[in-house]
């Protein structure tokens, strides 16, 4: 194997080693938050406002893909390197499509997001899973009901609200009051909050997705180059 191919091999290996470590770190953060690890929660209280399962899922995907890249490069396995390149190409396509949709159909995607949140609220009384997800949304985003806390009063006819309506910005989970009423609850509804967050972050997320896709294109080209070199070497010594 030539010097140029060896360079590609080691660049691919170390690049994916860093990605794998980042993936493990994200999994660790997600698990620590799920386990209510107070030290980490307090440290990240002003920076971590998304569900910990998001970190676990994204970290797992990063680790699995990087595993194929690392092992394929260091073992000079044509099959693993090609599999890694295919994974990358699929992710690149998904990222680019998502970014284009977020740039060109921003309002439509916002409406879909808001309808999804409203749908969860409507199903919460009959679906325990939907209720748990909506309570998590209320805690994470410090909101209550679809449009306001009065949504609970109109539907249920009660003065007390779910505890998740009374979270305050004192960490990832927030500090719950002993009894939650409309007077104590977060005033903004979750549909409005979701719309605000989408307007704030959609173009940033789309731009980051395009930037990361450009880096991934380089990684895919390196992987395909290495796979081609491995195949040629196998044919030469067959």
From TrEMBL:
<feature type="transmembrane region" description="Helical">
    <location>
        <begin position="53"/>
        <end position="74"/>
    </location>
</feature>
<dbReference type="Pfam" id="PF00335">
    <property type="entry name" value="Tetraspanin"/>
</dbReference>
<feature type="transmembrane region" description="Helical">
    <location>
        <begin position="81"/>
        <end position="106"/>
    </location>
</feature>
<keyword id="KW-1133">Transmembrane helix</keyword>
<dbReference type="InterPro" id="IPR018503">
    <property type="entry name" value="Tetraspanin_CS"/>
</dbReference>
<keyword id="KW-0812">Transmembrane</keyword>
<keyword id="KW-0472">Membrane</keyword>
<dbReference type="InterPro" id="IPR018499">
    <property type="entry name" value="Tetraspanin/Peripherin"/>
</dbReference>
<comment type="similarity">
    <text>Belongs to the tetraspanin (TM4SF) family.</text>
</comment>
<feature type="transmembrane region" description="Helical">
    <location>
        <begin position="204"/>
        <end position="227"/>
    </location>
</feature>
<protein>
    <recommendedName>
        <fullName>Tetraspanin</fullName>
    </recommendedName>
</protein>
<dbReference type="InterPro" id="IPR008952">
    <property type="entry name" value="Tetraspanin_EC2_sf"/>
</dbReference>
<feature type="transmembrane region" description="Helical">
    <location>
        <begin position="12"/>
        <end position="33"/>
    </location>
</feature>
<keyword id="KW-1015">Disulfide bond</keyword>
<dbReference type="GO" id="GO:0005886">
    <property type="term" value="C:plasma membrane"/>
</dbReference>
<feature type="disulfide bond">
    <location>
        <begin position="144"/>
        <end position="165"/>
    </location>
</feature>
<dbReference type="InterPro" id="IPR000301">
    <property type="entry name" value="Tetraspanin_animals"/>
</dbReference>
């Amino acid at each position: 194997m030539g010097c140029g191919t060896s360079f590609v091999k080691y660049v691919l290996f170390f690049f994916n080693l860093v990605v794998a470590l980042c993936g493990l770190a994200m999994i660790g953060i997600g698990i620590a938050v799920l386990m209510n690890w107070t030290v980490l929660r307090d440290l990240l209280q002003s920076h971590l406002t998304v569900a910990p399962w998001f970190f676990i899922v994204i970290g797992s995907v990063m680790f699995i893909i990087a595993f194929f890249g690392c092992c394929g490069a260091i073992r000079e396995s044509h099959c693993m390197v090609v599999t890694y390149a295919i994974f990358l190409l699929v992710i690149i396509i998904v990222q680019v499509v998502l970014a284009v949709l977020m740039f060109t159909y921003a309002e439509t995607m916002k409406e879909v997001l808001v309808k999804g949140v409203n749908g969860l609220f409507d199903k919460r009384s009959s679906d325990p899973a939907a209720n748990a997800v909506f309570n998590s949304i209320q805690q994470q985003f410090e909101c209550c009901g679809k449009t306001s806390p009065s949504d609970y009063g109109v539907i249920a006819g009660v003065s007390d609200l779910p505890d998740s309506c009374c979270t305050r910005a004192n960490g990832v989970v927030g500090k719950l009051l002993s009894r939650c009423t409309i007077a104590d609850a977060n005033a903004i509804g979750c549909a409005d909050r979701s719309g605000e967050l989408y307007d704030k972050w959609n173009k940033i997320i789309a731009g980051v997705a395009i930037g990361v896709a450009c880096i991934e294109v380089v990684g895919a080209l390196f992987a395909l180059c290495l796979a081609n070199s491995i195949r040629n070497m196998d044919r030469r010594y067959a």
